[in-house]
């Protein structure tokens, strides 16, 4: 049966926009002609890797940036030379910490960038018993977004940093917390699919939101990886030959987030998943590919199911969902 693309929401969202930027663009290049004076951004994980590069670029463009961090002192040291940046404490796998930060935000926010995360870590549980990757990468951000939506300005955007790692699989509905056997890459894939689905869920509710794959970048995100793990994620082409990824610098890795946060070309693409400063194509199949977005990560029905489930888990004010602002 041939899919009717004319009525296929993911296919419509995932059409390219003709971006003038690409894989080698940097965040500062993307923001060269963008004046963010008077705008306020919040970037989680904004003191290392692509988060640090993004905060620097946003501040250079004139934005005032709040950079909440699990290690505030380390964040202050990393950001000491960046004007207009404020550091606060935030532990995304602790719902009380999320609530405390949100309560302290008493000014409007124009850009909310959900960047912090963990990858392929050993099995770890939060005090609630939640699997750490889903708890940190998605549930913490879900609660933070819902608590801060009343502060998001009209036309303000939410940017959710997902990953090509979502190709490892969509939502593991039969056991989302991996209580019946932990598989770290499958758990990571679920959390990154959830990051993309959060953007869809927000978009379906009228909130401008985007998700993205920043690219392959050598940062501390890979601190848990072993040689065996690297073998698990190596790509091969159709002939079975090894495909060596082209690694980006942190500044290049931050470019797609900068594009998602500011480009007018994306005005009618809310909910889209981006890569290399462009809307990514839908790609079919299973297993880790080298580009594009899998349908399970941008399906509105999956996003709605996840939104309801996350609200039930997070509870409290975080469970109000993105309807109404």
Structure write-up:
The protein is α/β, with parallel strands linked by helices and 325 residues long. It has a single domain, classed as Rossmann fold (3-Layer(aba) Sandwich). Helices cover 34% and strands 14% of the residues. The chain contains 11 helices and 10 strands. The longest helix has 21 residues. It is globular and about 45 Å long. The termini are far apart. 51% of the residues are buried.
The CATH topology corresponds to: Rossmann fold
On the 0 to 100 scale, the average pLDDT is 90
**Strand line-up across the major sheet:** 3-2-1-4-5-6-9-10
* Main sheet: strands, sense, barrel: 8 strands, mixed
Radius of gyration: 18 Å
Specify the CATH homologous superfamily.
Answer: NAD(P)-binding Rossmann-like Domain
In summary, what is this structure?
The protein is an alpha/beta fold.
Name the descriptors:
325 residues, alpha/beta, Rossmann fold, 8-stranded mixed β-sheet, two-stranded antiparallel sheet, 11 helices, 10 strands, globular
